[in-house]
Amino acid sequence: MALDAMTRTRIETDSLGSMEIPADAYWGIHTARALENFPISKRPISVYKDLVRGLAMVKQASARANRDIGTLDPFKADLIDRAAQLVIDGQYHDEFIVGVIQGGAGTSTNMNANEVITNIALELAGREKGDYAFLSPIDDTNRSQSTNDVYPTAIKVGLGLDLRSLLDELDLLRRAFLAKAVEFHDILKVGRTQLQDAVPMTLGQEFNGFATTLGEDHSRLKENAYLLCEINMGATAIGTGITTHPDYGRSVLHHLREITGLDLDTATDLVESTSDTGAFMSFSSTLKRNAIKLSKICNDLRLLSSGPQAGFGEINLPPRQAGSSIMPGKVNPVIPEVVNQVAFAVAGADLTVTMAVEAGQLQLNAFEPVIAHSLFQSITWMRRGMHTLRVNCVDGITANTERLGAMVGASVGVITALTPFIGYAAAAALAKTALLTGRNVADLVVEAGLMSREEVIKQLSPARLSGLETITAAIPIVRAGAAETGSIPTDH
């Protein structure tokens, strides 16, 4: 290692030659070559903090395992361990600068981690950066490892860590919808199927449905988290474990479980595990399910709040910004709209993951970088989308009770509640009459002599209409000859 005091660079050498590296950089020549080779995304891997933490956790576990089995000097192992812990704690992340999209199956990312952790360790030992004769990024920090087991393991660990915060935010959003369900529990509205008027329900039931579907997604994501727990540490290049001590796999698993708090396990077939990326595809599919269902909820919020004068206008979303540069007073549903777009991106990312999984060849999948980028971006955007939906939209939703009440009062769909008493044919005829004349359904039923006013009022109560109070006994259907012969009054 040589240091030029005037230009503040150091010279590092690899099998391809030598390069000048900024003297204060914790990364080295392998990272520098990646910067030249992959100016694609202009997004460093450090944008995904849990991926960087996952890499550091793998390096820390490996240092401890190598120390325990006697393949790495305890002093060196301790330096690597301490350096990795600093990265785990959030320091030096800005030194992880290789692009998220790269060739080489993640080699550049692994080397970036090796170089940064090594140079941090060198500083801890009072040595200069780049003094690899004292502590080597490859021979020491990467001891018993290959990119082909480090990189997929770090991705799974990082996703496992990231998933925790996603699940927390998802549960907060579920609770926000549930709180609105309680607030709106007794507000009647007209339900709709195929965008046509259906039967009554409460606004609380509608919002409770949103909460329930998000709860189901929470369960599905937790169930699929196990897919991220099978790792291939000890497989090295292709799964044969070449260059590793027989006890390394068991030891590194023990330490990685302890460091991450994740229920990790070593794959039974390391050759298969090194080449197979199906777990990422399955996990991506579950993320897409959550995103699409969340998008559907946002579609409903936009419809229910449409107007406010010429649309549904049933609920009011919090006004977040002026909606037009030309129409004064216009306010758009911008928060649900941005979450819709997140869902579109997640669906596209899922297709990317699928194609990358399919493109693997023989003993390795070279396209794990785009898989990692797609999954981490999806989790990150979904978490942020859920947060803004909850804080900037759902928490502030109010009900337009007057409009809801007016629509229920004029709805022909309420007659469905009377079909057990007057029969479907009579109900259909009365519904048609009500639509043609604008008459109140309850009045028509009473005037036709099919039910008493008291019984109609009872059966059309909010509790009965919304299903909160059900009919439990068998009820004889009244067969009104007038209704079946079409002699029901149509105008008065």
Automatic annotation (TrEMBL):
Residues 415-465 form the Fumarase C C-terminal domain. Pfam families: FumaraseC_C (PF10415), Lyase_1 (PF00206). Residues 17-348 form the Fumarate lyase N-terminal domain. CDD domains: Aspartase (cd01357). This is Aspartate ammonia-lyase. The keyword Lyase applies. Keywords: Lyase. InterPro entries: Aspartate_Ammonia-Lyase, Fumarase/histidase_N, Fumarase_C_C, Fumarate_lyase_CS, Fumarate_lyase_fam, Fumarate_lyase_N, L-Aspartase-like. It comes from the Bacteria. It comes from Microbacterium lacus.
